[in-house]
Amino acid sequence: MRELLASIRARSALLALEGAAARAGHAMACSFGSSAEFEAAIIRSRLAALAWRKRRRDYVLGAAIVACCFFTLLCLR
Question: What is the pTM of this model?
Answer without folding.
Answer: 0.34
